[in-house]
Amino acid sequence: MTSLSDLTDEYEFLDADDRYRLLIDLGKALEPMPDALKTDATLVRGCSAAVWVYPTVRDDGALHFLADSNAAITKGIIALVLLTVQDRSPADILSTDIEGALAPFDLRNQLSSNRTQGIPNMIALIRSTAERYAA
Q1: Fewest CB within a 10 Å sphere: which of 22, 29, 54, 76?
Q2: How far is CA 54 from the centre of its chain?
């Protein structure tokens, strides 16, 4: 899996079309989420596309998220968000500046506002999940 810093370096040099392609490719590389997990309970509210996020806890206590979307670009954004938190402990996730890590990607200016409005909701869901498991 590509690291966020490698991706940031690559993203900087891409034009808008290539940035879209990179996000779509990231989404395609996401671990498949079984359809049975795509329920109302795992649906992220406030996203223009359907987005599902399902947390699992590994044996070592780290959180592993399965996620999917019915929109290719949105799926890529989810993949980008997950790069900042995947397979990390709840405490680690809570201390991570997810928004700061995503800042170099300048998603608000790259994508339409209805594509980015769900990002804070995805991040909030990940944080609340980490809080539940950190206790």
Answers
A1: 29
A2: 12
Catalytic residue among 7, 33, 44, 47: 47
For residue 32, give the DSSP letter: P
**Contacts within 8 Å (CB) and 24+ apart, 121-125:** 121/44, 121/45, 121/46, 121/47, 122/44, 122/47, 122/51, 122/53, 122/77, 122/78, 122/81, 123/81, 123/98, 123/99, 125/44, 125/53
CB 27 within 8 A of CB 111: no
Beta bridge partners of 69: 51
d(CA 28, CA 11): 17
Helical H runs in the chain? Answer: 4-12, 16-28, 72-83, 90-95, 98-102, 107-110, 113-116, 119-134
* For the chain, percent of residues with pLDDT exceeding 90: 64
Active site residue 47: yes
Average of pLDDT values for 96-107?
91
